[in-house]
Amino acid sequence: MTSALDTATSRIDAAFRAVGVRGWVHAVDLDGGRELVLRADEPVVLASVFKVALVTALYRRHDAGALDVTERVGVARRTAGATGVSAMLDPVQLSLRDLAYLAIALSDNAAADALFDTVGDAALTELLDELGLARTRIPQRCRDMTDALLADTGAADVDGVQARLQERPTGLAGLSVRDPRRTNASTPRDMTALLAALWDDRAAAPASCAAIRRLMGLQVWPHRLASGFPDDGFRVAGKTGTVPGVRNEIGVVEHADGARVALALFTSADSPAATLPQADRVIGTAARIAVDALRAA
Amino acid sequence: MQASEASAPAARHIASVHHHDRKRLNVCIELCCVMMVRVDLLRHLRYFVAVAEELHFGRAAARLHIAQSPLSQRIKALETALGVELLVRTTRRVDLTPAGALLLDEARAVVERVERLESVVARVRAGETGALRLGVSPDLPAGAVAALAAELAAHHPDVRVLPAEHAPAELVPALVDRRVDIAFVRRPLDDALLRTGPPLRRPLGALVASDDPLSAAADVDLALLDPGRALVLFPRDAAPVAHEAVLATCHALGFTPREVLAAAGTDFAASLVLTARAVALLEEPAMPPAGTTWRPLAGAPLDVTGAVAWRLGDDRAIVGLVAGLLRAVLLDTGGWSAAGRPAGRFDVRTRPADSLLS
């Protein structure tokens, strides 16, 4: 006899295949502990999803008194990107927590690297150790990933990458930002563990966890996880991750009835196309199937 | 001065050798010469050719980048080993004896043959010559292989291709398994074990029944197609990403077919077109099957891409040569064109929601 969760898992896998992507999913009911598993222990590329761990490390440094999130800093080295400080032209000075807002809600690369430079690698390693996220590695800043992509494609700047990718005879093969061994990587299960710690006030002080949950709830993107929950009965907080062919999102979906489901969804397509709405939407479709199945279970 | 003083005792010694001993010594010298020449005949012939062509020991030695005395010793050894005089030496000049003139032609031929052999071996070693196994799928235009072979015969006679037929889906495995060295394959191709040349593009058109009103127009506009029509397309498994892209483009242009049928070959596609009044999207066939007509699509919104592929790491010069020639042949005669961005279109840019690390 196949359980409802197994059926949901096959439907999710079929939905991924129908749009030409491969998917990895872990979804956990934060109160009942039931879970939906699709290759949830395989290594996946985080892309910008790592910014959730980065901001958590920032708040833990604040909790420890090592820094103050209201401290204002300038962004001297401006990492390329299409949003936030990355896209701005003039000098800025922002508090660390407002940089965190831009890094999470808009996936601002310059803001994230400014935070990373402030927080340091050791604080991230300590966070991963203490939460037991043994399969997660975060060696790269955003600028390391953009540099790797420029080196792999031979593009002169980030704006030239897309054109180079479409002319590249080997497609997306061999890009280091797509290889979990060579970039920030984790597993879907490690990422739902991070979300559970944030939603249960274990990842940092309760006020800090609440601040991070607020930032994830302010994320502006409607096209992935949120696309599966187009009604007021659901609240969605998430963080996307995007590198060529890779479309990810992790987040927590809460229902008016009190249900809370942590989801980590990672996808990979062979197509170098930057705009692939069906590959974005399937993340919402898969999340909806998972949440419905977990709530019914 | 010193040299002649030093050699004087030796000369006296030779002069004092008994007549019988001198005969034995001559035999020894002769044997030594024979051995020396046998072991390195080619070098002796090269030296002889140089002297015979220059008719001057000094110039010949300079040409061979050696000193004059070892040169003249070698020539003497050659004469001794062959048992004939090859040169008439006077104080002023050197001339060929009739035997020398005869030998010159033969020696030249030998030296030239050996030089050619050495250069062929060197080029095989450098990967500039030899034979390559070319994977040919039935959809490669018939003239392409012939044109490639003709081009090689005319300009690269020591490079050959050995064509072998493979189904399109079999070409990549055949390359990876080393059953073929080079092939023209369809993209997108996400195989880290292969390298490809610059992509080529060919437009997709519509194959319709000849009595279908669509065949009357110069081109078929996807936007105006009746959604009641079934669409015939290559099987999804053959190229899932390309399949998805074709359907997405049809949809974006306003044509959402009632049904999508799969056909790998032109003849089967034609059967479906004729029996179901379907529209098949495919490359222009060399000859449309009976009862069908091929028309380009208005605005050329769809194309297929392909590229010449070979194994990663196989960087022999011959592979690069044949890959370049095959691409040129397909550009010339195969209906393929370079897949650069069409002029006048903008660079592809990502939107913020799809941007790097968003």
Characterize the structure shown.
The complex is a heterodimer of chains A (297) and B (358). With 297 residues, chain A is α+β, with helices and mostly antiparallel strands. Chain A has eleven helices and nine strands. By secondary structure, chain B is of the alpha/beta class. Chain B has helices at residues 2-16, 19-39, 41-54, 57-64, 68-82, 98-125, 142-155, 171-176, 240-252, 266-276, 317-333, and strands at 87-89, 94-96, 130-136, 159-165, 182-186, 194-196, 200-203, 205-209, 230-233, 259-262, 279-282, 292-296, 303-311, 337-338. In chain B, helix 3 crosses helix 5 and helix 7 packs across helix 11 (317-333). Helix content of chain B is 45%, strand content 18%. In chain B, strand 3 (130-136), helix 7 (142-155) and strand 4 (159-165) form a beta-alpha-beta unit. At the A-B interface, helix 7, helix 8 and strand 7 of A face strand 6 and helix 9 of B.
The gyration radius over C-alpha positions of chain A equals: 18 Å
Structural class of chain A: alpha+beta
Helix content percent band of chain A: 40-55%
Instruction: Summarize the amount of helix of chain B as a percent range.
Output: 40-55%
| Strand element count of chain A | 9
List the helices and strands and how they pair.
The complex is a heterodimer of chains A (297) and B (358).
Chain A: H1 4-18, E1 21-29, E2 35-38, E3 44-45, H2 50-63, E4 72-74, H3 84-87, E5 93-95, H4 96-105, H5 109-119, H6 121-131, H7 142-153, H8 158-167, E6 185-186, H9 188-199, H10 206-217, E7 234-243, E8 246-255, E9 260-269, H11 277-296
Antiparallel strand pairs in A: 1-2, 1-9, 3-6, 4-5, 7-8, 8-9
Helix pairs in contact in A: 1-11, 2-4, 2-5, 2-6, 2-10, 4-5, 7-8
Chain B: H1 2-16, H2 19-39, H3 41-54, H4 57-64, H5 68-82, E1 87-89, E2 94-96, H6 98-125, E3 130-136, H7 142-155, E4 159-165, H8 171-176, E5 182-186, E6 194-196, E7 200-203, E8 205-209, E9 230-233, H9 240-252, E10 259-262, H10 266-276, E11 279-282, E12 292-296, E13 303-311, H11 317-333, E14 337-338
Parallel strand pairs in B: 3-4, 3-5, 9-10, 9-11
Antiparallel strand pairs in B: 1-2, 5-13, 6-13, 7-13, 7-14, 8-11, 8-12
Helix pairs in contact in B: 2-3, 2-5, 3-4, 3-5, 3-6, 7-11
